[in-house]
Design brief:
alpha+beta, Arc Repressor Mutant, subunit A, 5-stranded antiparallel sheet, 11 helices, 5 strands, elongated
């Protein structure tokens, strides 16, 4: 296993989300967590996590699990997701047994646990990252390898929990600095015109700078708004900036 220093050096040097995720999942596997789900939204409210197309969602779970968890909506009934939305820090999944023993889980939550058991998702930890604003929320679910029960993973956590938390916190912070397009992908020209808008340039200014017609600039701005699913160019600039699609050297 790499030292935490060597691992964090690799993490902070990662140039893409894909590279970062590969480094992180390999390191977590060394501690006994072989399946991870990381989720982040910038559009959290009291009644919604925002449009799923705007989420940052990373996982190395198989399609069979994720199709049910996301497409069939089990995520919204998952007790550990509820915990993560209401708390910050790390939580052992032993908490689920405590909730079950006191009949504190709803019928829908119990169905999620039954599905998880059928997919061998039975032991692990959830880390809910401290939010920087009321609208942002991020968390990661660390699932223990098959054959490891909660007692075993709790013993590993007792020895390495601080290191695991630091590794996940740094991964989360690094990810926020990397471009992540998801399903809201902008073309090179769309990014370019939005960047000029972000610099305070008018449509006429941008047309002169790019040697294009104002109508062409308006077309690229309209397509950028459609790609980002917003109504105004100002909103497009903000959303593109949130996903680090603007003012980057390479995407």
């Amino acid at each position: 296993m790499k030292t935490i220093t060597a691992h964090l050096t690799d993490v902070t040097s990662a140039a893409t989300v894909e590279e970062l995720w590969a480094i992180h999942t390999a390191y977590m596997s060394d501690f006994g967590f072989d399946r991870l789900i990381y989720g982040y939204t910038r559009y959290n409210t009291a009644v919604s996590l925002g449009d799923p197309q705007d989420w940052v969602l990373l996982t190395n779970h198989g399609d069979a699990y994720m199709d049910a968890f996301l497409t069939d909506g089990l995520m919204f009934q998952a007790p550990m997701v509820h915990w993560a939305l209401e708390n910050s820090g790390a939580c052992s999944w032993r908490w689920l047994d405590e909730m079950r023993q006191t009949d504190a889980l709803t019928e829908s939550e119990q169905k999620v646990l039954a599905f998880n058991k059928s997919m061998n998702v039975v032991a692990g930890y959830t880390i809910s990252f401290k939010s920087v604003s009321e609208r942002t929320k991020a968390a990661i679910a660390l699932t223990a390898k098959p054959g490891l029960d909660q007692d075993g993973i709790d013993k590993i956590w007792a020895r390495h929990g601080d290191e695991i938390i630091v590794a996940n916190n740094v991964m989360h912070l690094k990810l926020l600095s990397l471009p992540y397009t998801g399903q809201r992908h902008l073309t090179k020209r769309q990014r370019e015109v939005l960047q000029w808008v972000g610099d305070g340039k008018t449509t006429q200014d941008i047309a002169l700078l790019l040697d294009l017609t104002p109508a062409t600039i308006e077309k690229h701005l309209r397509l950028a708004r459609e790609a980002l699913d917003v109504e105004t160019t100002a909103q497009a600039v903000m959303k593109a900036a949130f996903s680090n699609q603007m003012f980057v050297v390479d995407i």
